[in-house]
Amino acid sequence: MNIKVIVFDADGVVINSPGYFSLQYQKDFGVSNDVMLPFFKGVFQDCLVGKADLREELKKVLDDWKWKGTIDELLDYWFKSEHHIDDRVLREIKNLQSKGIKCYIGTKQEKYRTEYMKKEMGFEEIFDGIYSSAYVGYKKPDERFYEEISKDLKNKEGIRVEEIMFFDDEKENVDAANKFGWQAYLYKNFNNFQEKINQI
Question: Is the pTM for the entire model greater than 0.90?
Answer without folding.
Answer: yes
